[in-house]
């Protein structure tokens, strides 16, 4: 038999069919959640219909455009993390599956910051643990029940004052962690989140952050200036607790999500874990915030020192806060109310004019309503 090359139409049909089937089948990382659907329900946590053991999507033969609007067509981007509804109060929560063999300290340290007297401490910016579920017949697997949080930069900061408040909170949060004699060791951008309950009073779909919960439109939100938010550190999987008598604990580095600390170039040599935290946090500000905007030059000297190639030359978190406090009080009202302008935006043109006009009108409303230039949430 001679193989006949497929025509363009046949190739297109096959691709279309594969796309339709893609969402109608569980991903490998989703199987665990389907297999534990009933058990999780008994524990008080209800997963979405996609993970019901008898799930059979009625839309599986529909076009891709139809599938995209179906709630149970949304699959997990990361198999170890899933959203659920807490039966006791209808709260949307996140379930995080962890292996205690790979991350033996994560449960202990997350619980540590979630218990009194730390849980209610106003300077505590560590994610608050809701529950711990021990998976039956799998003693090395634990599920952490965590609040629904959102990436710290989504949506982006509108004003200099909003960015300044972000800096203040993450410095305060890391100081609290270090004062508890713990190094986070992975405080890069993906592990800093915000509590969305103020900005997004109606919330959003946990797996489609830009859409409302019913997927019928975009999620509605307010600015940070209108409704101030609190920021949180998450993921204590590689964190370590040290002796209170050791201000510079040295340990073999564990690579974080940010691979750029100079200490990682000699991975067999012990390094100061607190100094690595300083670098990682400084790099969040330098790489994620300062390189994308034009208006934050006042942070350059401090951030540069935080990211110094010599760990011994980096300031401690207490020194960071002292220097930041001077910066904080030096910024005038006009600077703080200024729009955070993207680095690639030109000074002239119709679009910059529209953005500036919109910002002026928003700022006028905020001033008339008595909104703070540095929007600090109530404690």
How much helix is in the residues?
Answer: 25-40%
How would you name the CATH homologous superfamily of the largest domain?
A: Transferase(Phosphotransferase) domain 1
Could you give the order of strands across the largest sheet? 1-2-3-5-4
**Which strand-content bin applies to the residues?**
5-15%
Query: Which term fits the overall shape?
Result: globular
Number of helices: 11
Low-confidence stretches: 1-14
Mean pLDDT: 92
CATH topology-level name of the largest domain: Transferase(Phosphotransferase), domain 1
State the secondary-structure class.
alpha+beta
**Overall domain count:** 2
- Gyration radius (Cα, Å) is 24 Å
Q: Architecture of the largest domain, according to CATH?
A: Orthogonal Bundle
Biggest pleated sheet: 5 strands, antiparallel
CA distance, first residue to last residue: 76 Å
Instruction: Count the E strands.
Output: 12
Order of helices and strands: HHHEHEEHEEEHEEEEEEHHHHH
CATH class of the largest domain: Mainly Alpha
GO molecular function, one term: ATP binding
InterPro entries: Kinase-like_dom_sf, Prot_kinase_dom
Protein name: Protein kinase domain-containing protein
Domain Protein kinase: 17-369
């Amino acid at each position: 038999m001679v193989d006949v090359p497929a025509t363009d139409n046949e190739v297109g049909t096959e691709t279309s069919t594969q796309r339709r089937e893609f969402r109608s089948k569980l991903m490998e990382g989703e199987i665990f959640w389907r297999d534990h659907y009933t058990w999780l329900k008994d524990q008080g946590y209800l997963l979405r219909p996609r993970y019901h053991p008898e799930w059979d999507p009625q839309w599986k033969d529909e076009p891709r455009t139809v599938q995209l609007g179906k709630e149970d067509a949304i699959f997990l981007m990361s198999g170890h993390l899933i959203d659920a509804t807490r039966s006791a109060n209808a709260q949307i929560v996140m379930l995080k599956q962890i292996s205690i063999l790979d991350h033996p300290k994560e449960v202990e340290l997350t619980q540590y910051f979630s218990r009194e007297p730390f849980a209610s401490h106003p300077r505590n910016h560590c994610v608050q643990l809701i529950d711990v579920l021990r998976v039956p017949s799998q003693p090395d697997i634990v599920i952490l029940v965590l609040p629904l949080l959102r990436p710290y930069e989504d949506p982006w900061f509108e004003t200099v004052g909003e960015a300044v408040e972000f800096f203040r909170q993450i410095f305060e949060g890391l100081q609290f962690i270090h004062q508890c004699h713990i190094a986070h060791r992975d405080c890069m951008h993906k592990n800093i989140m915000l509590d969305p309950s103020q900005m997004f009073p109606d919330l959003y779909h946990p797996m489609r952050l830009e859409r409302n919960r019913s997927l019928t439109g975009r999620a509605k939100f307010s600015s940070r200036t209108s409704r101030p938010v609190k920021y949180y550190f998450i993921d204590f999987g590689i964190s370590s607790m040290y002796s209170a008598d050791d201000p510079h604990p040295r340990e073999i580095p564990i690579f974080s999500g940010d691979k750029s600390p100079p200490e990682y170039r000699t991975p067999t040599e012990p390094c100061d874990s607190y100094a690595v935290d300083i670098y990682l946090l400084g790099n969040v500000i330098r790489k994620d915030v300062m390189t994308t905007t034009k208006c934050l030059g006042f942070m350059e000297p401090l951030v540069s020192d935080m990211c110094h190639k010599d760990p011994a030359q980096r300031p401690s978190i207490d020194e960071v806060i002292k220097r930041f406090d001077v910066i904080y009080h030096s910024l005038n009202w006009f600077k703080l109310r200024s729009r955070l302008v993207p680095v690639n935006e030109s000074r002239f043109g119709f679009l910059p004019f529209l953005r500036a006009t919109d910002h002026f009108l928003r700022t006028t409303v905020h001033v008339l309503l008595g909104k703070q230039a540095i929007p600090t949430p109530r404690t």
